[in-house]
Amino acid sequence: MIELKKSELEAALITIAAYDSKTGKMVSGLLSEAISLGTKRKIQKIQKKLHESYKEFLEDLQEIRKEATPEEIQEGEPTEETKKELAAKADSEFKILLEEVVKLDVEQFQISQIENISTSENYNFEIIEKLAI
Predict the structure, then answer these.
(1) Rounded alpha-carbon distances, angstroms, from residue 73 to 76, 79, 82, 93, 131
(2) CA dist 89 → 68, 69, 116 (Å)
(3) If we measure between CA atoms, which residue out of 21, 33, 19, 25 comes closest to residue 128?
(4) For the CA atoms of 44, 116, 11, 132, what is the dihedral angle to 10 degrees?
(5) CA-to-CA distance for 125 and 97, rounded, in angstroms?
(6) Where would I find the H helices in 20-124?
(7) Number of folded domains in the chain?
(8) For the whole prediction, is pTM greater than 0.70?
(9) Which residue range(s) make up the domain with 85?
């Protein structure tokens, strides 16, 4: 089982695979390295679960943003004080959201399976250590 804070989800996804936004092609990440197919498959399963959790995180973030910027308050336009209160509340909720832990019920790959990679990429090894055993 993999445990990550929600603040680490994006870094984990990028560590696994980063894509060029214009072409959609993978440009870096563990999946772009010369590793065994079995290891790639395990990493892909992790990626899938991470992506699901990341989508939920983004939905939660949108909800927090909506609450912080209501289109109108019951009695007309929000005052500056009300706007500040809403922003402070949203900031607090956002900090709590980032610290929440996500548990991914997926098989981890062996760190030894990627130790011999010869690469110029500068991977986030704290993330890799959480994804591997």
Answers:
(1) 6, 9, 9, 20, 45
(2) 8, 11, 47
(3) 33
(4) 60
(5) 23
(6) 37-68, 80-99
(7) 1
(8) yes
(9) 2-70+78-131
Q: How far apart are CA 101 and CA 123, in angstroms?
A: 22
Q: In 3D, which of 27, 19, 20, 23 has the Cα closest to residue 51?
A: 19
> What one-letter code names the amino acid at 83?
K
Q: Which tokens go with 65?
A: 């943003």
Q: Note whether 80 and 102 are within 8 A (CB).
A: no
Determine the residue type at 80.
E
- Mean pLDDT split into 10-residue runs, the chain, 133 residues: 97 97 96 96 98 98 85 63 85 96 97 93 95 96
CB-based contact 130:101 (threshold 8 Å): no
Please state, in angstroms and rounded to a whole number, the distance separating the CA atoms of residues 123 and 16. 9
